[in-house]
Specification:
mainly alpha
């Protein structure tokens, strides 16, 4: 007697630990809709947009909590399963709040021996308050995604929904580039000739595409892993060829649009993430010969993507000396800024205001430098070396937790491998850019991280 297989559903079976399936269904839909909508208004990189999304998520979080408490239901994934990361998150949030408290006089060196002072650590309390709001919203998003994705079928459906969202924006980006180079129907004012979709900044869009590519590649590689577990006499697993084809085509399309963004580091970071997933695949299968056809199947399409849209990217790699020179000057002057307050920082979200203290020639005075072009440097200058390192440690712990779980079971393998690929993409790109400081990118990053840790800590 054979049992009929059913397609994955967002609902999934009711939680054995009490979480009502209908609540998790509605909450997962609300979360996915948020991920889909956040990139629309210029990647939500304006305070007003983020205030709206914070209110939206807060409303659903209150509804979720009220229903869970009323029904005396338990957490599907208790936060204490990742207690070190949770403590690091709370410590980071607490320090952002401390930076707003006027409890002393903090020196603010200017030029020519002149010194000012502020009542609080932050030189821009409004921006620090907004940064705290973002921090808490990201934490809430992570917690909710972790709960609704505890069910394996729902987790897979959410993963595919996120992939569809990235594919949709990729399609819009390439269509916008080919039909007048516009953004939301308006002529672009920056990054002409680059695919940007609704993101304005091509590097942020490239990171967004790279994360989507990791979803597609993770789903393709899990088919290889599953096939490696079968005996030769059992033949191929069901839908192996069609599944690999569809996922590799999705990966190719996203990679092609990524090349069209002309983001150099976006390309490097995505390749690094791809290598990470391929290494995990090889480590799991321990059969090199099964990878010999997958790698060429990816290299050939990548070469095709470069031939179609690689001229602008390759010319930037070879000729964009001014951009590289400016970036090195930014790093040098940012380090000078860090030297002024290495322990306390200048306040979360305050880089643009604080940078004026050290901004000098030969770095162009015609521009307002709102970002350090390195998320690591931004964290350290805004929060100090100690507190600024806490978010990195938290993500590092989550990556370690996911990697440990990969060796124990194949359940959730695609989701966990995708998370490692995404951490690699964002971690590499953050070295020389500020993509993770753009809400649309961070929302997708947090969502995929939550799916990965949920798969690593649940047995469903």
């Amino acid at each position: 007697m054979t049992q009929k297989r059913t397609a994955p559903s967002l609902t999934g079976p009711a939680s054995r630990r009490g979480g009502p399936a209908r609540l998790h269904l509605f909450t997962s839909i609300a979360l996915v809709l948020m991920v889909a909508a956040v990139p629309l208004p210029f990647a939500s990189a304006r305070p007003l947009y983020w205030a709206i999304w914070s209110a939206y998520l807060g409303l659903f979080a209150l509804t979720y909590a009220a229903v869970m408490l009323a029904g005396k239901h338990h957490w599907r994934v208790p936060p204490n399963v990742i207690w070190p990361a949770a403590l690091l998150f709370l410590a980071t949030s607490a320090y952002l709040a401390i930076q707003l408290v006027p409890f002393g006089s903090f020196s603010l060196p200017v030029r020519d021996g002149v010194s000012l002072s502020t009542d609080q650590i932050s030189v821009s309390p409004n921006m620090t308050l907004l940064t705290l709001l973002k921090q808490l919203t990201y934490g809430l998003l992570f917690l909710l995604f972790m709960q609704v994705s505890a069910n394996s079928q729902r987790r897979q459906s959410i993963s595919y929904a996120l992939l569809a969202i990235v594919l949709g924006y990729a399609l819009y980006g390439i269509v916008g580039l080919q039909s007048g180079d516009t953004i939301l129907g308006m002529p672009k004012w920056v990054y002409l000739g680059s695919a940007t979709a609704t993101f304005v900044n091509r590097n942020a869009f490239a990171t967004f595409l790279g994360m989507g590519a990791m979803i597609a590649l993770g789903r393709a590689c899990v088919l290889v892993v599953r096939q490696s577990q079968r005996h030769k006499s059992d033949g191929l697993i069901k839908h192996l060829v069609s599944g690999l084809t569809l996922h590799i085509v999705a990966y190719l399309f996203l990679f092609t649009v990524l090349v069209a963004t002309q983001s150099r580091m976006g390309l490097i970071a995505t390749v690094a993430g791809s290598i990470a997933i391929l290494v995990l695949t090889l480590a799991t299968t321990r059969k090199l010969y099964q990878m010999t056809w997958l790698v060429p199947a990816m290299i050939v399409p990548i070469a095709l993507a470069l031939s179609l849209y690689g001229d602008g990217l390759l010319s930037r790699i070879g000729d964009d000396q001014l951009s590289t020179s400016n970036r090195l000057l930014i790093y040098q002057q940012t380090l000078d800024l860090l030297h002024l307050r290495p322990l306390t920082g200048f306040g979360g979200g305050s880089f643009e205001q604080a940078f004026q203290l050290v901004h000098t020639l030969p770095l162009s005075p015609e521009y307002v430098w709102a970002y350090a072009h390195s998320t690591y440097l931004t964290l350290w200058t805004e929060m100090g070396l100690l507190a600024g390192t806490l978010p990195m440690l938290g993500i590092g712990y989550i990556a370690w937790k996911i990697l440990r779980s990969l060796g124990g079971t194949l359940k959730g393998w695609a989701t966990k491998a995708t998370s490692i690929g995404v951490i690699t993409v964002c971690g590499v790109h953050a070295l020389v850019d500020f993509s993770l400081e753009i809400p649309a990118v961070t929302v997708l990053f947090v969502s995929l991280l939550a799916l990965g840790i949920s798969a690593a800590t649940t047995s469903d």
